[in-house]
Amino acid sequence: xxxxxxxxxxxxxxxxxxxxxxxxxxxxxxxxxxxxxxxxxxxxxxxxxxxxxxxxxxxxxxxxxxxxxxxxxxxxxxxxxxxxxxxxxxxxxxxxxxxxxxxxxxxxxxxxxxxxxxxxxxxxxxxxxxxxxxxxxxxxxxxxxxxxxxxxxxxxxxxxxxxxxxxxxxxxxxxxxxxxxxxxxxxxxxxxxxxxxxxxxxxxxxxxxxxxxxxxxxxxxxxxxxxxxxxxxxxxxxxxxxxxxxxxxxxxxxxxxxxxxxxxxxxxxxxxxxxxxxxxxxxxxxxxxxxxxxxxxxxxxxx
Length: 303
Ligand code: A3P
Known about the structure:
Blueprint lengths: L1 E5 L2 E6 L2 E4 L3 H10 L7 E5 L5 H12 L16 H4 L3 H6 L15 E4 L8 H5 L3 E6 L2 H16 L9 H9 L8 H14 L4 E5 H6 L1 H11 L6 H6 L1 H8 L2 H5 L2 H5 L27 H15 L9
Parallel strand pairs: 4-5, 4-6, 6-7
Antiparallel strand pairs: 1-2, 2-3
Helix pairs in contact: 10-12
The protein binds adenosine-3'-5'-diphosphate (A3P).
The site of adenosine-3'-5'-diphosphate has 21 residues, from helix 2, helix 6 and helix 13.
Organism: Dipteronia sinensis
Family: Belongs to the sulfotransferase 1 family.
Protein name: Sulfotransferase
């Protein structure tokens, strides 16, 4: 099945999820050819759940001894360029990209659902950090994102009501949302050393705790000296929405030179913006869905 999601952005039903047609070739090649290394780190997210933030945090945590923050590559390079989407940026351009030159540990991003990951990711000791977000804010963030990408010329399905109807049926990029989050939630309970399951709202609420948690998970914990020197605070501040949004590269640059404007990845960066958009009946509808889909799993979201 194929549906029109936004102009020039169709979704195809593929292995039980809605795959953006522009990425299908990259995704198939990634599934077929990618050979994970034990040292690899996969940053996996549902779209618009804080991928940009997670990429900045993990890159900065891992490279903290290599250079000071003022000379971090993130000052001049957008996080998505530094930590590419493996399927959309690397495989989509080339069936077998040369990944040899990547500094180790290699860090890659993807939005792929757990059930569709290449086998080598599951069969090696490579680690996964998964990040998701409450579905109300995720929906609003995605809606704004597509409006920005599409410009004002958007025809077809695009009003809040129309897109809402679709997401309630599970039709959205890499959706249904529920299957995506539950796939990683269940796997993280089964393989806690392999998969770290994070939520955007938690990262916002207690960022220092999660910066340390990520470092521990990646087996590069902060030393006592680093903690005393305030390294955790510095990293958290450096990767914060305010700081990242205001870096010159993210204010004015474009991804890979001619891609989307980098500032598209930095909008509001808050929890609860849905309150400015959702009608009471939309809220009721989504809450009912949340209850129905998540109750048994024990997975909950703050909103
Ligand atoms: P909003 O649209 O709600 O502002 P992704 O990176 O997965 O595409 O998600 C984008 C969302 O994360 C946007 O949410 C964006 O503003 C927010 N975001 C980007 N960088 C962030 C940061 N450093 N801290 C917190 N939120 C951030």
